[in-house]
Amino acid sequence: PATRVELTVSCRQLLDRDTFSKSDPVCVLYTQRPGSHQWREFGRTEVIDNSLNPDFLHKFVLDYCFEERQNLRFDLYDVDSKSPDLSKHDFLGQAFCTLGEIVGSAGSRLEKPLTSGIPGKKCGTIILLAEELGNCRDVATLQFSANKLDKKDFFGKSDPFMVFYRSNEDGTFTICHKTEVVRNTLNPVWAAFAIPVRALCNGDHDRTIKVEVYDWDRDGSHDFIGEFTTNYRELARGQSRFNVYEVVNPRKKMKKKKYLNSGTVTLLSFTVEAEHTFLDYIRGGTQLNFTVAIDFTASNGNPSQPTSLHYLSPFQLNAYSLALRAVGDIIQDYDSDKMFPALGFGAKVPPDGHVSHEFPLNGDASNPACHGIAGVLEAYQCSLRRVQLYGPTNFAPVVNHVARSAATVLDGSQYFVLLIITDGVISDMAQTKEAIVNAAKLPMSIIIVGVGQAEFDAMVELDGDDIRISSRGKVAERDIVQFVPFRDYMSGGPGAGLSMAGLAREVLAEIPDQLLSYMKARGIKPSPFPPMSPETPP
Predict the structure, then answer these.
(1) Which terminus of the chain is more solvent-facing, meaning fewer CB atoms within 10 Å of its CB: N or C?
(2) Which residues 6+ apart lie within 8 Å of 366 measured at CB?
(3) How far is CA 112 from each of CA 50, 102, 277, 296, 413, rounded to the nearest angstrom?
(4) Global confidence as pTM
(5) CB–CB of 291/395 below 8 Å?
């Protein structure tokens, strides 16, 4: 499920539209559905009387998707009457941004000037603060032991294991955890296990948790030893006399007057900590560094011919440009300097016509970074006129190029994303696999977009979703490659915007989890961010 984000809105130095008092502002939020340009009203804040510096109490709660471009529009009005019709009130100004822009700003706090459509007119500023809603992200780690459980096996002792269930609103139970089996003992100590608090009690600390104890049998007909109930609030007390439970078999209790229990279970330890999310790292200042690598091999076709994948038509963007825009437009919100290194591979480059597999599109080897996605597109189009398409198609040099940068920042402050756009016929598969296996240890992810009609079997292998990629017997420690064929999203005409949004969604969907898998493997916690009141300058 998508993360939910709460937006807090404040304004400073709004226009004063009231003659005898100050303006009475309200903020109206509009959103767009993916692929649609139509604005729909999402909600309104309360009206704050007589204030040009309102801090609105009403929050907007939005579903946040890293992989979508979520356009937002904030309109401010001075409310003059009780009418809900906005045209009856004075317009004070508006601001446009994306949800990614707010989240990607330092401390997830974005300040923007309000505009009214009148050039040069100062309308004040809007301050937007995004906070992830704590959807109970806690993870509890528990360990149990048992004592004097009933002996169920004819020859040996019992082989006990426990099954945990959380209760539902309607009185039914849902299984949420099963311990391992401890063999041949009536006094087992089970291994500690971690479980999301959500799974254990769905956020309700008083909800019943039922635990059943069984004796494991090879044929699957496990013998019931007994059960007990508890709840999260009890367990959270940790090891104490309250957390020693009698294991009771109700049938034995009915039959035998002297029956006490079938043993006891003791909670040995209980700890709880918050599971960090992608947004925790972004808010703590982690920057995404975006590098583009473009395939300039001859298999793309002569760029001056309309059949070429690199053909620059005056009327529409080619597949390379479209893919670059779709992915770049979203990722640029998370990169504060908006400088993107852009490389080409597989062409003969001036002055001497040698074949290069990592040449800078802007012609500057010491600094291949271009300003903004527009800068990358411009450098790409200039390169097409400068270089001669050639071959072979080698990926390893650009993967290693980004890996060298990633290897210099291992502290979690930066995460590198390499976008390779290619027509898919790869020549250095063995070297590329080795490069990817090495890169999997670094803070980086690789996105491959395949353009054209080729068979992309090799790309699917690099993706490693089904079989984790390996090289010389070493398996990649994380899955860091996502491959998407561009043709699956190629629909010209009015739906083109929607299909590009679909491409971006598919390509970027795995990045948050890949970033988390790196941080977790390295034990890197997000930097704490000081809470900012709207008054403090950024």
Answers:
(1) N
(2) none
(3) 22, 10, 27, 40, 25
(4) 0.74
(5) no
What phi, psi does 164 have (nearest 5°)? -105, 140
Is 530 contained in some domain?
no
Together in a domain, 79 and 63: yes
The single-letter code of the amino acid at 234 is E
CATH number, domain at 446? 3.40.50.410
Count Cβ atoms below 10 Å from residue 44 Cβ, excluding itself: 18
Beta-ladder partners of 206: none
Q: Provide CB contacts within 8 A for 484, sequence distance 6+.
A: 447, 448, 449, 450, 503, 506, 507
Specify if 518 maps to a domain. yes
Q: Is the domain of 90 the same as that of 106?
A: yes
pLDDT tens-place string over residues 407-447: 999 999 999 999 999 998 899 999 999 999 999 999 999 99
Q: Are residues 27 and 124 in the same domain?
A: yes
Query: HSE (CB half, 13 Å, CA atoms) of 226?
Result: 25
User: For residue 414, what are its two tokens?
Assistant: 């930066």
Instruction: Report residues of the chain scoring pLDDT below 70.
Output: 1-2, 134-136, 491-498, 529-538
- Supply the range of the domain harboring residue 342: 290-522
Q: Is residue 50 part of a domain?
A: yes
